[in-house]
## 1
Amino acid sequence: MSVPEANCPSPLEQQKSEHRALAVLRMLGREPSYASNEEIVGCYFTRLGLACPRAQVRECLAMLERPGLIEVSTVEMLSVIRLTAKGDEVGKGLVVVEGVLRPGVDCPY
């Protein structure tokens, strides 16, 4: 039985999702506290041409939290995210995780 096309992300959306995941990890790696929040992440996506609804920002963060690349906590209805050591390794391209684009030599993020 085949999965309806409506439930499958388009190849372009899949690629954007992988770029967003890498962008989050690289952004957090440059923060002095290795932390930020979902509001800042959403603004960063917009600056990079990867704008998406808040629900998609949260999906991206949940996808990064599942394999332990980030830790997510909630403070007054806002998701606060912190980079983990594994997430830093993925952001640097030392470890490959499905769903996260591997950075190239001249990665713009």
## 2
Amino acid sequence: MTEATIEQLRIPETLDGELAHDFLQAVEVSRQVRVHTWGNDKLAYTAEELFAQCHDPFEWNVVLVARQDGSIVGRAGIVLPLDDNTELAYVTLDVLPTASGAGLGRKLLEAAETFVRGENRKIVMVETNHPAATLADAESEQIPASQGSGTLPLSSREARFAYSAGYELERVEQFSACALPLDAALVAKLSQQAAATHKSSYAVHQWMDTCPEEWEHDFVRLERDLVDGKPADDDDDGNGDAQEPWDVAQLRETEELSALTGRRTLVSAAEDLQTGALVGFTSISVLGKRQDVAFQDDTVVEPAHKGRDVGLLIKVANMEALMREFPQAGSIFTWNAPENSYMLTVNAQLGYVSAGMTGQWRKDFNAL
């Protein structure tokens, strides 16, 4: 067996033909890693999704691959924001289980760090994934996150890898899964609970893929609130930090990009009937090529309207929309900060169960 070499992958112009072979092989590496980690490929993006990400106008996507004996056995996906946070780089590492344990992950990470330094990026973010079964060692030394209340055990191979590479654990999120469809009696009970709390003070508006012009400015404002100061009522789809502050033009461009991948987005928003303004929304996304799996994206509720079960109201409505529009969806996933007790409670009421944790790790080259 020859020593693995690292090279930058050329992104093909299309997914057809011989020129797409290496790209598709790298996608398959990512799929196999997620099967090994979670026991299935439900969290693996399709080739179409990753291809579209490589053409995102708001970020530059670069892929490094590790090649051994002619085959790709590992990859490092590098995301470089282009509009804001241009000091940041996000790195995702995937190494086939059959090739792990030989230092290949460290070699890929060092190559990615060299690349982002060359692009004058000062901070690198890396994510690690931890199924619940790997977190059961109560005797292990815990690594505390610098933000929030989460910790990860040093006994975890992934946590130890990031820690030994000089990364600081910035935050931890609980990864949860919910089986679909929900029981009709449960949906009715939760809808009644929300209505009893808010006393018909809100109206729910729903759309798929494209925000109606009537609500576009409110929707953008709520997205800005999410970025400027992450509200307590939040979910995350696990694809990294929230979007940068939008304007309407960027919202429309993002919607068009999603449409090209076939991704569908369901939104339920709450209108305050006193002011006529949207005060919260929640969104769910379904991949174009994987409509059996859904992802709970952001949930935002303005601070002045918390404590009235607005989050529960719109999340139940959106789950109903998901089951109605995509009856083939058998599961939905979400990520939450461990200290976000309200949203974790709402999710538990809906039937979510914890499946593990993810860690967000940070290295600041300025501090070295």
## 3
Amino acid sequence: MKILIIGGHGGIGNAILLLCQQRYPSAELHATYRQTRPQSQPDEVTWHQVDVSDESQVHKLSEQFTHIDWIINCVGFLHNKHQGPEKSLASVSSDFFSENIRRNTLPTLLLSKYFTPILKRSEAGKMAILSAKVGSIKDNRLGGWYSYRASKAALNMIVKTVSIEWQRTCRKATIIALHPGTTDTALSKPFQANVPTGKLFTPGDVARDLIAIIERSTPEHSGRFYSYSGEELPW
């Protein structure tokens, strides 16, 4: 079994990486990081420095594999040091919107493009993508967060569209979108004060929930959107 974790340096990504090492001790594990390679990581993991919003780098990464069973994309973007999610239209910035699309949406499209031929060689290839419930159009009742919502809604559309193509070209493979819930990581840190009691999860808890969903997913689940609880979410 060969597993590639995109963003294995982040809070959720690293927790998934460590859990995979425990649960699948014979698996060949690969993980990516964007800038700084994580310290004190297991020797059994092969690390790749990749900006997955750069097409040439994703192409180069794919050329290092002849076979892959699971790809778990954990990269995500919510805020930078200059701007956070917009509370109103007055806060919208074209540059911030573009950064959300580039970092939240584009990587999955590029990974799908270059890794589909490789996943086809697996008897049960799987691609799991970390999305967010705020990307659900039907579930949007509060408004705001324009760029993040739009980038995740676009991501969800990519997952759905890839699943339709895979029905013809990659029939044994599964692609799903996953909502991890609010996780105690740097990404959610500025927004944790408003999280209801019991709804802020540790990365380890989230990793166990998401891996359980990935394990039981099959091609009939492809193109669907699941919460960490296993509930199917509306687009």
